[in-house]
Design a protein that fits this description.
Strands 3-2-1-4-5-6-7 form a 7-stranded parallel beta sheet, sandwiched between helices. It has a single domain, classed as Rossmann fold. The longest helix has 20 residues, at 85-104. It contains 9 helices and 7 strands; from the N terminus they run βαββαβαβααβαααβα. It is of the alpha/beta class. 37% of the residues lie in helices and 14% in strands. Helix 2 packs parallel to helix 3 (85-104). The protein has helices at 11-20, 51-57, 85-104, 120-125, 149-168, 190-197, 206-218, 222-234, 257-263; strands at 2-6, 27-32, 42-45, 63-66, 108-114, 171-177, 240-245. Strand 4 (63-66), helix 3 and strand 5 (108-114) form a beta-alpha-beta unit.
Amino acid sequence: MDVLITGGAGTVGTAITDHLADRDAYDITSLDLEEHPDPDVESVVADARDAETVRSELEGMDALIHLARVPTDGGPSDQAIAWSDAHGENLRLHANAIGAAVDAGVDSIVYASSNHAVGLYEVENAPEIYDPNFSLTVDHTVQPRPDSMYGTEKVYAEGLCRLAADAHDVQCYALRICAVRDPEYDHPYGDAERAVDNGDFERGSDAYETQVERLKGMWQSRRDHAHMVDRCLRDDGVDYDVFYGVSDNDRRWFDIDHAREVLGYEPQDNGDDERWDSRPA
């Protein structure tokens, strides 16, 4: 299978290629602003905002994994409603990439959506939602509840995927990714340890403990994410559907039963597994 990944050299892209690029089943090309580090991946250094370039690279491809976006001010924790040129660039980028995939006749699109498309559930219930006994499950049937302009962009691109599926017969998979991290921080203490490394707070502080509790619910290990993408690429039964990118964490509030039933997703990791009882020194 020939696959193009936009934004393939980033955190999520390399999680996919680290586990799938050496498989005989896939020939993967990364289109990104920087060279891809994996020699098993063909690297195209280009801007995904250039519709003609994306369309050209999609020629003959079987699938698009669309990860690319333009960084914006005001992240997932900012509920302000405010326009910026960067937001406009993202809307154009998503429309160009998904439109190019339709024009090129790819069989499927795997889109990197985000938990922030329904992030207000967390905003309204934090920090109690991080307790493993908190009774809330957010599944694929809920209406979008973005927590930010970032989340709103993700809902927009989910809509483009739905249009591609319904009007153009492209199989589309919207993965509402929860928390995939770089290899150094690919564990339930990753966000807290990164914050310590950045000097934001000290290990053992209340802020540290809250970050650990949150990531133990949100974490999707790099290998579990790659496995989910693999299941999407191998699937032939979905027209359009939403799945949550999260490992089998005891305290997760996002559903994975739907991904198990439809895709055969079988995550290997759990943020509350006993092997994580020993905290980083």
